[in-house]
Amino acid sequence: MHPRTEDLLTIRDGEPIDAAALERARTAPGFAVELERLERMRRRLADLPPLEAPAEVWDRIRAVGDTPGVPRRPWGQWLARGALAAAVAVAAIAYFVRSAEVVTPSGPPVVTTPATIVTHAPDVAPVVPASYIQLVEESERLERMLADIPYQRPMMSGRTASTIVGLEDRIAFIDEQLTYGAAGGLQMPEQRALWSERVDLMNALVYVRLGQAEPGGF
Amino acid sequence: MPQPLPQVDAALLARAQRGERDAHAELYELFSSIVYTLARRMLASTAIAEDVLQETFVEVIRKIGSYRGDAELGFWIKRIAINKCLMHLRSGWVSRRTDGPDLEQRVARGERLDERIELERALEALPDTARAVVWLHDVEGHTHQEIGRMMGYTASFSKSQLARAHERLRSLLEGEPEESETALCTPELKIC
Q1: Which DSSP string corresponds to A101-132?
Q2: Is ipTM strictly over 0.95?
Q3: Other Cβ atoms within 10 Å of A108 Cβ, number
Q4: What residues in B contact A118, CB-CB < 8 Å?
Q5: How far is the CA of A195 from the CAs of A50, A130, A140, A142, B114, in angstroms?
Q6: Which end of chain B is more exposed for a tag (fewer CB within 10 A), N or C?
Q7: Would you list the DSSP string of B138-159?
Q8: Which residue among B70, B83, B154 places its CB closest to the CB of A136?
C-alpha cells in the first residue's frame, strides 16, 4: 500500500505524526522516492520567478488618493458608513439568531443551528472547550455557505457595498488578531470571543450576500 | 524561497507615515512585485491580481500611520495582501474569472515551454482553495494552523487541501491518477 500524501507531507514538514502512521508510511514501498518528490515540488514552487507588477496600477492607486469621488473603494467614506451598516446588520442578525435560531432573508434560509461537533484529534487539544470548536465549525459552515451563493451582482447599491466592505474589513481584522494573537499567546477566552464575533459577522455577510443575490435584491 | 523582503529604513517609513506621496511611491516600488506575485500565484488571474495590488496599496497608504512596527513592514504589507486575496477567493468571483491566456502569450512570444512553465500552468489549473493553500504553506511558509485561521477553516482542512493539491499537481505534471480517497473536489462541502 502506498503511503498517504497527507502523511508524507506531515513527515516532510517535520510536523508531529502518529507513531503508527509514521511506521506505516516508512515501510510503504516508494517512501523515500515519494518524500523526495514532494520536497522537490516544494522547491520548484518556491523557485518560480517573481512577476513584475503592471506599471499602470500605481497610477490607479494615485487616482484613488487624488479624486475622492472616483475611486473604486472610497475607503474613508465607505468605511464610516460600512461600520455603521455592519453594526446594524450584526445587531439584527444577533437578534434573529437568539430569538428564532433561523434567519429567513429574502433568499434561502440561513440556518444558524450550531453544526455537529467533530473533533479533529490532531488539531484540537483536549483543553479546548466544545463551544470554541462549535464556533470554528460554524465559521467554516458559513464560509462554505458564502462560497456557495450562486450569483453576486457586480453592481450594487452604495449601502450594500458599504455594508459588505465594513463586514469584510472587520473579518479581516479579526483574522489578523487570531493569527498574530495565537502566536503571541492569546488566551482561550479572548480567542473564543474573536471567533464568536467572526461568526456573527459571517452571519451578517451571508445575510447581505443572500439578499444581494436575489433578483431585485438590494 | 519567497522573494526576500526589502528592508525599509526608518526615514522612509516616517515620511510615508507623514503622508508624503514620494515615500508611498517608494514603498510601492519596493513591494509591488512581491504583492503582485503573491496575488497572481494565489489567484491565477492577472486582472484580479492587479485589483489585489491596488486594494493592498490603497490600504497600506491608508493605514501606514497606525503601523507600529510589531511585525516587519514587509510582513505587514504581505498580510494585507493575503487578506485581500482571501476576500476575493471568498467572494467566489475568482473561480468565475475568464482571463488566463498569460502563459499562451508567453509561449507565443517564443519563451521556451520548460518545466517551470508547465508548473505554472499546473498551479493555475488547481482549484482556488487548494492553490491558495499550497502557495501559503509551501512557498510563504505559513503553518496549517495559520492558514486555517486565515481562511476560516481548521488546520486539518488546510492539511487535506495541501495533500490534494500535491496529488493534483502530480497528476497534471506526470499524468498519474490521483488517490481516490482524496479526490480533489469535496462535493458535500462544495469545495473544488
Answers
A1: SEE--SSS-EE-SPPPP---TTTS-TTS-HHH
A2: no
A3: 14
A4: none
A5: 35, 13, 11, 12, 45
A6: N
A7: IIT---HHHHHHHHTS-HHHHH
A8: B154
H-only helix segments in chain A: 5-12, 19-27, 31-46, 56-66, 75-100, 130-148, 158-183, 188-213
Q: How far apart are CA A178 and CA A33, in angstroms?
A: 37
Interface test with A, best of B27, B89, B154, B157 (most A CBs within 10 A): B154
Confidence (pLDDT) at A129: 64
Contact assessment for residue A160 and residue A201, using Cβ atoms and an 8 Å cutoff: no
Please report, as a single letter, which amino acid is at residue A72.
R
Give the amino acid at A18.
Answer: D
**SS3 assignment, position B191:** strand
Span A98-125, pLDDT tens digits: 544 433 334 443 333 333 333 343 443 4
Are A75 and B157 inside 8 Å of each other by CB?
no
Find the closest chain B residue to A2 by CA distance. B179
Q: Cβ A5–B179 below 8 Å, yes or no?
A: yes
Task: With CA atoms as reference, report the closest residue to A84 among A28, A179, A159.
Answer: A159
* Chain A contact probe: residue of B89, B138, B162, B179 with most A CBs at under 10 A: B138
On whether any CB of chain B is under 8 Å from the CB of A64, the answer is yes
Q: How far is B146 from chain A (nearest CA, A)?
A: 6
CA pseudo-torsion sign A105, A111, A114, A120: negative
Cell 493592498, residue located: B56
Residues 104-143 of chain A whose Cβ lies under 8 A from any Cβ of chain B: 120, 122-123, 136-137, 139-140, 142-143
pTM equals 0.61
Is A131's pLDDT higher than 60? yes
Contact A198, A174 (CB under 8 A): yes
Q: What angle, 0 to 180 degrees and rounded to 10, lies between the N-to-C axes of helices A130-148 and B73-91?
A: 60
Tell me the three cell numbers of residue B28.
Answer: 510601492
